[in-house]
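F.,

This is the one I mentioned.
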């Protein structure tokens, strides 16, 4: 298998603006008598408000309105909702949410062992495909950068692959992998039909999708859970006739970072806790848009910046110190999200403590902190802007201007924590994944 083989034109997304993306146009159903595994007919969401009447016996709503029961603690719940629509087919928490790079499609997966592909431009959303075959929670995956593939990973150790049909209006089951006990992350190569995934046994696996699903290499270098991985762009363009250099960087609970050469499975470099001058589990990672450096975050409030070419440790940042807190609970110290902003030279770091710290990437000093109020679950910059989007366990998503620290907007509507979100490529649409099993769409 040549990993440089160009991707197929299965999706044929060349003219999607005319044929597909018009929000005012109806979403056409493609009839197919022989429905592929994982395909499901589209159906409208139904309004279940009529089913939510209070049928409790002995309760007179009119007589007791506004009265508190003596001795009972009354908790105020914010029931405001400024979303444009919702998707509620899941019956358990949603852990996975992603958007198609070219079409108004969303993938969600959750604790009900099921994934769905649905539309984000119609009100209500249309169900495109039901993704079956997992026997435990779907926790990671998404669409490939070219939009022709969809890969899901679960706590059952399974990786399942679908491909686009009818310009993304249907998704055909392609193949599956079951090599590990639990899949922890999935990442795609930015330009080739290749993906990688990590596992709870410390291993990482790299697969090619074309011409068939084929393992390129298996990487064993970590002694505990492999928590994150990312493909790093080559340091230089290949000479004519040479294959493109493929590098994958992985981190793990063992406090080790490894750069791998694919498909030879040779380590380019390995950074141990001794070299970091710091020992703690690395739990997530964020690649700088230029690909020249990567930030890794720990479970106890530290961030290290590593040069991807040589493996040099550029800086180590004490996020806890930046918050000014000296007695933060251990559970609140975890780095739950990181995001780079090229527009103003900032690395944003979000903590379980409900604080986002903004570090200057020139001096690595904190510029300011943003108070969220509850555990931060994800942060991401709108491309080519200084606008940061955050989600948190208070059930809200927020938009911040990091130049001023101003909260510009808050998305409400969830009754429990927002576990993550996905942004459309232009930043105009935001889709949430929530603990109550509902995804909200904000424009």
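My design for it:
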């Amino acid at each position: 298998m040549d990993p440089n083989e160009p991707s197929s034109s299965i999706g044929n997304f060349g003219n999607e603006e005319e044929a597909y993306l018009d929000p005012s146009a109806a979403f056409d159903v493609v009839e197919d008598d022989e429905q592929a595994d994982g395909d499901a007919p589209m159906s409208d969401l139904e309004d279940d408000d009529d089913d939510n009447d209070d049928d409790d016996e002995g309760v007179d709503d009119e007589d007791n309105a506004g009265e508190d029961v003596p001795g009972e603690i009354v908790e105020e719940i914010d029931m405001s909702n400024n979303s444009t629509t919702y998707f509620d087919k899941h019956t358990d928490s949603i852990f996975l949410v992603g958007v198609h790079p070219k079409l108004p499609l969303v993938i969600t997966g959750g604790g009900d062992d099921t994934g769905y592909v649905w539309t984000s431009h119609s009100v209500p959303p249309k169900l495109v495909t039901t993704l079956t075959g997992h026997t435990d929670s779907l926790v990671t995956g998404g669409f490939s950068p070219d939009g022709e593939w969809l890969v899901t990973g679960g706590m059952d150790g399974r990786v399942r692959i679908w491909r686009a049909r009818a310009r993304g209006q249907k998704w055909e089951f392609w193949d599956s992998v079951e090599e590990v006990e639990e899949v922890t992350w999935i990442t795609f190569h930015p330009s080739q039909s290749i993906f990688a995934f990590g596992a709870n046994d410390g291993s990482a696996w790299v697969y090619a999708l074309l011409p068939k699903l084929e393992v390129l290499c298996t990487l064993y270098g970590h002694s505990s859970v492999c928590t994150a991985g990312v493909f790093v762009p080559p340091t230089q363009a290949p000479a004519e006739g040479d294959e493109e250099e493929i590098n994958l960087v992985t981190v793990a609970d063992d406090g080790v970072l490894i750069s791998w050469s694919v498909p030879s499975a040779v380590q380019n470099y390995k950074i141990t806790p001794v070299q970091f001058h710091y020992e703690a589990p690395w739990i997530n990672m964020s690649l700088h848009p230029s690909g020249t450096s990567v930030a890794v975050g720990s479970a106890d409030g530290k961030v290290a910046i590593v040069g991807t070419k040589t493996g040099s440790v550029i800086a180590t940042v004490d996020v806890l110190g930046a918050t000014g807190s000296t007695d933060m609970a251990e559970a609140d110290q975890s780095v739950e999200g990181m995001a780079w902003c090229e527009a103003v030279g900032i690395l944003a770091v979000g903590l379980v403590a409900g604080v986002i710290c903004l570090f200057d990437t020139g001096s690595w000093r904190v510029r300011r902190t943003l108070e969220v109020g509850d555990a931060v679950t994800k942060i991401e910059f709108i491309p080519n802007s200084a606008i940061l989007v955050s989600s948190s366990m208070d059930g809200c998503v927020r938009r911040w201007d990091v130049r001023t620290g101003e909260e510009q907007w808050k998305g409400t509507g969830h009754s429990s924590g927002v576990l993550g979100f996905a942004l459309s490529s232009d930043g105009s649409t935001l889709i949430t994944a929530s603990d109550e099993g509902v995804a909200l769409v904000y424009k």
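The chain has four helices and 32 strands.

Talk soon.
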